[in-house]
Known about the structure:
The complex is a heterodimer. Chain A is an all-alpha fold.
Amino acid sequence: MRLSLILTDSQECFTFLWPCVKMHYTQNGIVVVRRKKTVRSKYTFIEFLIFKFPLMFFVGLLYGMLGWTIVVSFTNWHGTAPNYDFAGFKWYRLMITLDRFHVDVANNLKWLSLGVIPTVILALFIAYLLELGSFRRLESYIRTLILYPVAMSFIVTGTIWSWMLDPDKGVFNTILRGVGLDFLQGRFTTNPSTATYWLILIFVWQYLGFSVIILQSSLRTAELREMTESALIDGASRLRILLQIIIPNIRSGLLILISLLLISTLKVFDIVYIVTFGGPGTATDVLAFYMLLATFQQHLVSLGAGIGVVIFLLAASIVIPYTIYAFKKWFD
Amino acid sequence: MRKIVSVLIVLIVFTAVVFAGGKRGEATGMAAAEERKLEIFHWWVGPGEREAADEWFKALHAKYPEVEVIENPVAGGGGVSHRVVLQSRLSAGLPPDTFQALGGAELKAYVDGNYLLPLDDLWTELNYRKVIPGPLANTFIFNGHPYGIPLNMHIQNIMYYNKNLFDELGLTEPKNFDELITVAAAIKKAKPDMYPLGLGTKEKWEAAFVLDAIILGEGGPEYYVKLFKGEIDVTKDKIFRTALEKLAKLKAYTYPYHANLTWDQSVSLVVAGDAAMVTMGTWAIGAFLNNKWTPGEDFGALTFPQGKERYLLFHADSFILPKNAPHPGTTMDFLRVTASPELQIPCDVVQGGLVARIDIDPKVFPDPIRQEMQAYIRDNPTKLILDQHGSIAPASFSSEYWAAIAGFMGEDRPDIDKTLAQIGTLFTTYEVKKDAAWYVWP
């Protein structure tokens, strides 16, 4: 199957907007890309209002904001009143000298790796177990159970986890003390060197159910089911089925899942805000949280905008190459 | 062609809507007969604070029953959540009628942004400069003009302690750092399960309070002011180094999981019997009262440190008049009420601060702690020093300074040299010397 990405121009999107990539997914995960013939669209005014204006508005707003953030990051806006004098790379130069910025980038990279890889692997095993395991009758109960975290907001789960992880009165340490395993007690989020990992654990827990659902839906195709069943009859081990049949056949599901998780970990903010507020000190600080503090607490609006641009560039430099790589590798 | 026309129509409609919005805003600002409405931004939503905020509107309605109050309360004690909303409204040119602001650097940020109107006439009318302490008035005057009406004073350097425990162990209240360490050691010995000093640094500013008290004891008031005006090179300074060393020493007696707690939870540690003492501002009195602890019986409090001379670190809440406020007349009425004892007494008694007016009898406070402090300020107004809590140094510095001190307290082995270098950089990076030059003490 060959893949060719075609940038269509004026038909579906307006010529002055970003060129759009058109793709169509078929059910079994194979991508078919159609090149559209250049036909002048005949939209009436009403049709334009219904179909094109909202798109135009949203895209305009999105890219407008993005452009504006980039502009502000090159101005000299500090203090409460806007100041649009050109300042060049002043705030970027300041940014790279700040200890806090280095802590944040390191933390964001931890999130990026430890938030995505374990989630995908665990989700894959759970999805596989639920589909092919021997407890099919329990499946619906288990699925509901692991889906619960998805239904709750980070505000709720963050609060619950911070109660559980409290080293003094929290659930975990109380239980450990109760059964006499005092030496296992942890300092969890109050230990600056490990605090971030505990936050990532909350993320993994929260996104696991969501990931399982995405993978399960790509597992549930008739072809795949037939293939695994015949492999089972032929005597293949379950692990071999997972590695050699399932994974190669749910590439599209994995691609979407990994991209979504990458983006979610890059923009992580709420867990940090709720559970540790960046602390102890700045140990669990991330770029998105610092962006808020720099802009509104420190009144360094241009610096905040600059951090926003860095987040955007990080996302672009990680997600875009990944997507291209994944497409090339899997669909060539 | 058709497409271009439709795009044009949409753009025209859009511009018209935006433009009309602007016009409408101006028109209401200049309306002859102003509506009696007051849109107000504040951050008093916590226990003790909510009740105090209600007292503002009770006092306002007692005098002007027709005013309709539109509240926009945002939690966060002058912190970031409040500013997100306020900053967007101000830079969009849609200010509320009034908002809560701390005197000093925070107020200065809005004055520098050209968002506020000076209140010279109102201050003259109320003779406000004479009825509040001089150091308090000075933190509201920029370029010779007063901005804002302070409604209270919060004293920051107070040590609260469990009185029953101190009586039981036969301890006397600590008046300086050495006595504090002695007392803490005695408590730790007698009650191994108890942490001598409670602390919560989740919001970061709390750890700096403890250090403030140590700095004040170590260097005295002039040093404190010079430090936060950026006139001291902390990397080479002996006093600041000693203060950090003492803070590190105190860490051994401090609640170790402080990174998880907010200030009110650190007060709750004392109430729950997990900690014996806590350093917090006057607002902690409200939190103690909320937990049904009686001042002078269950808990004691003293300004810390105190030697021959006794200085109080303070900051103050105020309300201001923004430029282009939709209802400036109503706002002025509210500011008049804010300056009156009818608002200050009920509000400050409930919330746990001191009253701004020194012509109010200190006996209005139910607790001996505040009666004594208010009387002390009435008789010694020059002993008030503006604190660093959002007040002397600019916010760009303070926010990072708090994080540095909170981080210092969170480390297993606090690195003094590293922290000194870090704080030294903060002073220069954020140009504290330039931005804090406005403050003159006393």
